Amino acid sequence: MNTSAVPAPGRGGAPDSGASGSVVIVGCGIAGWTVARELRQREPDRPITLVCADQGHFYAKPMLSNALAQNKAAGHLIQKTAALQAQSLRATVLPHTRVAAIERAARRLIMASSSSAPSPLPYKQLVLALGADAISLATPGLEHAHSVNDIDDYHRFRNALTAAGPGARVAIVGGGLIGSEFANDLAIGGYRVSVVDPARWLIGNLITADNGAALRAALAGLGVEFYLEDVVNTVERQADGCYRIALRSGTTLEADLILSAVGLRPRVSLAELAGLNVARGILVDEMGRTSDPDIYALGDCAAYTSAARPDVAGGAARVLPYIMPTMTAAKAIAATLAGQPTPVRFGPMAVRVKTPALPLTISS
Amino acid sequence: MKTYVCIVCGFVYDEALGRPEDGLPPGTLWEAVPASWSCPECGVAKADFEAVMI
Fold this sequence. Notes:
A: 2 domains; globular; B: globular
């Protein structure tokens, strides 16, 4: 690095756009890495540090629900290791590091005592790209269920499938977007799949009853069995290791593996502890800013207020755990960080349902 | 003419078709697509497309 270089001055915008000083991004998912990449494209010299609890490798989470049938190992899904990604972006990455607290007045992060990363870590601007946790139902026996919410989960699930053997029976709890995609992927992979969901049709929060029925028919054509308008009451592990699943309707299923895909809970606790406004997700305005002007949030952890979503007439803030809004937000936030304030504007958004049996694109 | 697939959402860029609505006429080779172009379906960067034979 040329030591006489100075950070590029902000290209206009509000005086507090802060186009200098270090940017710290918490989270190395597609949101965090995209903010880093987009910012580096605009600001060749700005110090960028990414902090993440996992290994930080760059991969596309949407690929996790299509990868089993293609026989892809977890390592195969990694596009760039954290180290390579950091090197190519001239950023610093601190993997295996949990943030214990955000000290907003001092603008610094306090790391968990178990980490070896520098603590405290100062920031001029902070980006929270924390993602969400898979919701775990309290139903007795469902603690045996897998959830696949990241690449490490995928690795474990794939190992469990391999151990269970070809044609193993997989019960999927949850017939939403992720559950349906996994049902398709597992069916193509030769597994015997059942789907349980309390709703009347698949992906009910996003698609019409007609499309839900068509999707069900297409997946049924692959052998997937459906138990809709139904709920898991109990799960018992049998002596031979398989699971007996009792449904509310009285039906009993047997499965070798259970996959839980019942929804996501945005990771808000770090923000909440720091006194930021949170609802279902970390509340952000139309600039992607939290209630602290130096802290941004995006992706699965954020809840966008109606200002950011002009298509929504008033109403509560919404979490948008999909790739397109996340990419839109990442680009806008990076531009704002670079001194060109850019509102996060969600135009018509496409959500792709990656079910090869009946691919759907939902436009909103 | 080659095809390139978005690794996240599966959108296919076909060189023979180009993407006229983005100012890329039919026949626009991948190398000529600007680096700033992103997937029209999911917003992922050009850098994240993979070449595939269809």
